Request: fold
Amino acid sequence: MSAVATHLEQGHAATHDAHAHHDHAHHSVSFIRKYIFSTDHKQIAKQFLTSSLFFLLVGGAFALFIRWQIAYPGEPIPVVGKWLPDTLVSSGAVQPGFYTQLVTMHATVMIFFVIIPMATGAFANFCIPLMIGTDDMAMPTINMISFWLVPVAGLTIMSGFFVEGGTAAAGWTNYPPLSASGTGHMLWVIGIFLVGFSSILGGMNYLATVLNKRAKGMRMFDLPLTVWALFITSVLQVLGTPVLASAASLLFVDQVFHAGIFIPENLLTPTGGLFPSGANVGSGGGGQPVLFQHLFWFYSHPAVYIMILPIMGVVSDVLATFARKAIFGYKAMVFAVMAIAFLGFVVWGHHMFLSGMSPLLGTTFMLSTIVIAVPSSIKIFNWLGTIWKGNIHFTTPNLNALGFISTFVCGGLSGVFMAIGPIDVYIHDTYFIVAHIHYVLFGGALFGIFAGIYYWYPKMFGKMYNETLGKFHFALTFITFNLCFFPMHMIGVGGHMRRIHDPYVYEFLKPFQPINQFITIFAILMGFSQLILIFNFLWSLKFGRPAPRNPWRANTLEWAAPAHPGHGNFDRDITVYRGPYEFASPESKRDYLPQWIRPAHIEKEEVVAAEKH
Amino acid sequence: MFDFSWNMLTYFPPGISTYSKALDDLFILVYWISVAIFLLVQITLVTFIFKYRTRPGHKSIYYHGNNVVEFIWTLAPTVLFAGLGLYSDEMWKVMKYSSRVPSPDVEIDVVGQAFNWHARYPGADGILGKRHARYRTAQNLFGIDPTDPKGKDDIVLTGEFNLPMNKNIVVHLSSVDVLHSYFLPNFRIKQDAVPGSWIDVWFNGTKAGKYELACAELCGSGHYAMRGVLNLQSDADFAVWMDAKNAAKKAVLAAEAANPQAAAPVPAAPVAAEHGSSH
Reply:
């Protein structure tokens, strides 16, 4: 039924699978409907992927400007410095105001326009329908809207660079009162509101799709862990993001109508005048800036899991496939994801240990936060259990997945430090936090994202990527990543604050300049290493060797689809007979047994289905 | 190339408050637990990668997991991490619970203003005058109640502050514009300065010297330069310094009394003045 509805909505005549295949060869969809306003989940996934890779380069460039300034304050930015306008740079060197804009936009771009759209846009769109054996999302038009909100939101926020006073500069957390004035902050709030709705629409769609459109015979516990993780992440998106939207709306009301929701009574502006706020009228009451922090982190802590859970799913699938072994404790993995998601909603206060909230509440948040280490440990141990007695192939996706485990352990452990309130008092807002967030979101999420991009590249584009370049990209990124971010722990322990334009104003930070220069050198090398990924991506599109249907000899349903699946995805009926991780099963002579192979036809169909192009 | 150690414990700035040692010890405990877990996982990972690498004739086993093992590696981290949380709570209570704040020897008000720190000392009478946000202007940052005689002799300083050592110092902290964060690295204390709220911070320094005060919360383009200096002195030195400040203030007040026109006009009496501390 739903298949029919989907096709009608897209203006296709095909009403059943046989037709769909025929249709794929001959249908004439306009260029705009096919490549721009497409409702095909695979095309939308590619759009998310492309926009995220674009924003990755933009956010990365911002990071390099930041690093340059911290390492060599006051010296002109090499090459690009002389092209930037005088409002941003003075004789080529980053100005303090521009610096705060850079730290704000680097994080905003990386979080809202790279990692979240990559994890819950690109992978969710590509994987969910294919991995559950269906033709498309439950709501393809909503899916299309969910993508197009992203570039609109991105342009809205970026346009801040061209307004008076510059773009948002209050950090990605955008705390009022600092963020309660200025056109740039207003644009930021509008952009975040829009990108939030992209997230909500996507999440709804994924929930509906997983619940209603699974292939015949597929139970919830037959879902690959990628789909499980995306499913639970969708719950977080649907429940959490409206709270961010409410925080953004209230801040907007403060910015435009001076309602004073977050602005206390009789507040001065940074220039010494009185803050235009309703609270200044009369003597009573006034707003509370900490309220914004509660609303913001009620979303933004779960958002950390929105960024990492899907990636944990991807890593699980990649590891199992290339270790040729079943996931160790599949159900434990699912329950661990559920536990992380649930705990994710009751720990937001650990971002606010210093906000002056009740210390008793602090104790509560400290204990709930530290307990998150438990499901995270379970996941690490189960991944180790998965590769134990496996037959590990060192393909590029697997190298990235193994790299993910290695760095995620480090990021997880540094998280324990900040979960402990008294230690957080000291390391809060220092480079220790910066090191932690990058170990989790770059070392964790981005290595997992690379694993996923390489793993599904053949199915996405019908071509194989270049393995040598892939391995080279991984090796360079892994080494430069660790040399760039690990020393940040050290200067963090030394008390080095974040978001400071020139650290050497402080006597106690002067000895850290050589370490900052060391970090910057590896940040630059790491940044330029990403060009290998971009080159490999584009070169393989044109010159890559054609991909077989199931290049990794994997078990999940996406590999049952044609090498470069067209509209409707599958060229035959899909029925699921077993779980997703039947590697080295005694039932089969081969070391894998796909979900879709009929038990009676194991020996016969395997060859035909899995290895023929 | 330069002094660099992979042991991050060597990077702490010297700790000079009564609880800095206990806090560093807690950090060191968590650090070594983390190092142990880190090595355990990384060594296992590398061993497995090497031992189970693909090679001709090597096969993986068919295995879906083991509930006993799952149970053990769920229980072990639960005990470890929950225990660590409960253990550290004591330190949290010492620093934060108002019931555990020792009786103050010296109380001052501190406010952040982009991009400076200001402090208010109680003056010759030893009592901070009442304050309320409604009195706040760019000239009266603390919102000192002009009708309260106890506030007349209060002394306001910017940027550099003297305080006595071996004394329990309670700072009532707030901000007049945006969020700031009061960070004394050597004292291991940091607290957000939240406009509209007065939050108490306490510390007790044990070594005389000049220590840097930083702003740790992004407060605008000049955030990086919002630096102050805390000059921790012996009792005797502090008394000399304070007496000099009080004498200077007394002279100013006497001059104002002699020439009332020069003094600022007193605004209408407020409905309900209060000492604005939220505690």
Residues 411 and 439 of chain A are 5 Å apart (CA to CA). The longest helix of chain A spans residues 96-131. The longest strand of chain A covers residues 89-90. Chain A is about 60% helix and 0% strand.
